[in-house]
């Protein structure tokens, strides 16, 4: 469904819709879309939340303002772009004033707030939102956090998937993959620190509650696949282990055969059943 045909209204840098009529309001769900994900595709996930009683917020991620190479471009944004949404969430009691920017509350398992982030691009936007909140001495209340096809790593393997994803000819793709892998291996070993890459820096806000400039507190559900070329499953599983070591409550589902951000397309019933169970309810999606 396109924006002009949808029940969503623009609110600063976000789009907001009320729960479907006849549903009991359960809370607020904020969806952080993948890089250059169009509204009509991210909105399909919003249908689940609206039909389940959630006021739903969609935040898109555009390559015009986000960079997978430079953190400076990603951070060079108007810090007021989220002000209307922050005011709205405060009225919904989804935001609280931080006691201390360095305090780290414990995770809890129940919350009227859901964060559903897609791919590394969604984490770029999530990081920005948390940092803006922190700069205002505010934070989100504890949330149920769902991570679809993320986090990944700044690595030659994921770089090959990203840079060769548009090549259809299998021979050309293999040749390009070999060249890209070699080039990225040299780049990361000699010229760049992967831990200063936007993908790594944004991932930390998904898997840790110990960041000094904004945190997302609550249990995590990782949804990923063994066939994702853009975010390989081994990278996700490394982050899952990291989150467990950090002391976070973690649940995970590894789908078989689904491509990047397509798990709900290939396995809609299983996907939404898992989400429903994680949120403490049973629900079958009508997507």
Name the poorly predicted regions: 100-109, 281-287
According to DSSP, the number of beta strands is 10
How large a portion of the residues is in β-strands, by DSSP E?
15-25%
Q: Output the structural class.
A: alpha/beta
Mean pLDDT: 87
Task: Break the fold down into its secondary structure elements and pairings.
Layout: E1 9-11, E2 14-17, E3 27-35, H1 39-51, E4 54-61, H2 71-75, H3 83-91, E5 95-97, E6 113-118, H4 119-135, E7 138-140, E8 144-148, H5 156-163, H6 170-190, H7 198-207, E9 220-225, H8 233-246, E10 250-255, H9 263-266, H10 268-278
Labels describing this entry:
39% helix; globular; 287 residues; disordered C terminus; alpha/beta
Word description of this protein:
The chain is built from 10 helices and 10 strands. By secondary structure, the protein is an alpha/beta fold. The model is unreliable at 100-109 and 281-287 (pLDDT under 50). It has an 8-stranded mixed beta sheet with strand order 1-2-4-3-6-8-9-10, sandwiched between helices. A two-stranded antiparallel ribbon has the order 5-7. Helix 4 (119-135) crosses helix 7 (198-207) and helix 5 crosses helix 6 (170-190). Strand 9 (220-225), helix 8 and strand 10 form a beta-alpha-beta unit. The chain has helices spanning 39-51, 71-75, 83-91, 119-135, 156-163, 170-190, 198-207, 233-246, 263-266, 268-278, and strands spanning 9-11, 14-17, 27-35, 54-61, 95-97, 113-118, 138-140, 144-148, 220-225, 250-255.
